[in-house]
Amino acid sequence: MESAAMAQVAYNFKIPFIIIIREISDIVNNENNYDDYKKFIRKASINSSKTAVNLIKLM
């Protein structure tokens, strides 16, 4: 949902290209969503930041 909003704003301001990096930190419709979130948020954050750094290096 948030990605769609960012894409819409970019489109409205005629920004031709954006990159959106998302990382999944839990499993939808799982009884243990909160436990999954706590378990994976750190890993998801690290993976997202590594991806962002690598993309910047490629630019």
UniProtKB/TrEMBL annotation:
What keywords are annotated for this sequence in UniProt? Plasmid
GO BP, sorted A to Z: nucleoside metabolic process
Q: Which domain of life is it from?
A: Bacteria
**Entries under Pfam families matching the protein:** PNP_UDP_1
Which GO terms fall under molecular function for this chain's record?
catalytic activity
Is Protein biosynthesis included in the keywords of this UniProt record? Answer: no
The residue ranges of the Nucleoside phosphorylase domain are 1-56
Q: Does the keyword Repeat apply?
A: no
Q: What is this protein called?
A: Pfs protein
Q: Where does this protein come from, organism-wise?
A: Borreliella valaisiana VS116
